[in-house]
From TrEMBL:
CDD domains: Precorrin_2_C20_MT (cd11645). Pfam families: TP_methylase. SUPFAM superfamilies: Tetrapyrrole methylase (SSF53790). One of its GO terms (molecular function) is precorrin-2 C20-methyltransferase activity. It comes from the Bacteria. The lineage of its organism: Bacteria, Pseudomonadati, Pseudomonadota, Alphaproteobacteria, Rhodospirillales. This is Precorrin-2/cobalt-factor-2 C20-methyltransferase. Belongs to the precorrin methyltransferase family. Pathway: Cofactor biosynthesis; adenosylcobalamin biosynthesis. NCBIfam families: cobI_cbiL, PRK05990.1. Keywords: Cobalamin biosynthesis, Methyltransferase, S-adenosyl-L-methionine, Transferase.
């Protein structure tokens, strides 16, 4: 019986292809199949990042995710739509693994940091040899391009999803030492209101598409909410450590 293929979850970093690790590039180039998440009719960010490393003989497997938001009218539910998508995606990847083909799933940033690969890992890692290669996460790319050291000494960093309800955001951000707020997009106006209420506007830094060609850095007060893309985040760096 033919050996089964191996599954690789490759972190491909925040956008700049030079931020891939040597290991990710090596495994990417040697995989028979390269799987990537994408919206219908779109290439997807992860594939755009790695395209220049791929050969013509490598199979590309698009995992087309449904267009949805986290709140859907009944009887639809976000959880069901997403679960069905990942069940189907895992099935497509497993077909190649069963046939003995190695599959590299590319994942923007780090695969285990809010990464789509996590849901494939949950479904497949128990059945197939699986390796995960970490990538540069967006918050560290953001800190680098903003020139903002994030946490000094014993400070605590809170990582918060902008999808949370307004009162929950306020509760989690109140009294935080340093914070990263992800998944802005349509949540931006809500997040900014909370930062205003907490008096954090002076400390909060905004970046969109960090390290990509279209990167933009703006003062938070000047950001137009309707223009905020999904690939954006806010950082609140910890107060600089005063050396004695
Ligand atoms: C599903 S999470 C994926 C996180 C990714 N796995 C990582 O390691 O950073 C998507 C969120 O990450 C953030 N993000 C990812 N790439 C980014 C970039 N290049 N610039 C700014 N924010 C980014 C945004 O907040 C976006 O809403």
């Amino acid at each position: 019986m033919a050996a089964k293929g191996r599954l690789f979850g490759l972190g491909v970093g925040p956008g700049d292809p030079e931020l891939l690790t040597l290991k990710a590039v090596r495994l990417l180039k040697s995989a028979r199949v390269v799987a990537y998440p994408a919206a219908k009719g779109r290439k997807g960010n992860a594939l755009s990042i790695v395209e220049g490393f791929l050969g013509d003989d490598q199979l590309r497997l698009a995992l087309i995710y449904p267009v949805t938001t986290e709140v859907l009218p009944p009887p639809l539910s976000y959880e069901t739509v997403i679960r069905d998508f990942y069940d189907d995606a895992a099935g497509q990847v497993a077909t190649h693994l069963e046939a003995g083909r190695d599959v590299a799933v590319v994942c923007e940033g780090d695969p285990f940091f809010y990464g789509s690969f996590m849901y494939l890992h949950d479904r497949l890692a128990g059945r197939y040899h699986t390796e995960v290669v970490p990538g540069v996460p967006s918050i560290m790319a953001g800190a680098a391009v903003l020139g903002a050291p994030l946490v000094y000494r014993n400070q605590t960093l809170s990582v918060i999803s902008g999808v949370l309800p307004e009162d929950e955001l306020e509760h989690r951000l109140a009294g935080c030492e340093a914070a990263a707020i992800m998944k802005l997009g349509t949540n931006f106006a809500k997040v900014r209101r909370v930062l205003e209420r907490l008096g954090l506007m002076d400390r909060a830094l905004y970046v969109e598409r960090a390290t990509m060609a279209a990167q933009r850095i703006l003062p938070l007060a000047q950001v137009a909410p309707e223009e905020v893309p999904y690939f954006s985040l806010i950082l609140i760096p910890g107060p600089p450590w005063q050396e004695a």
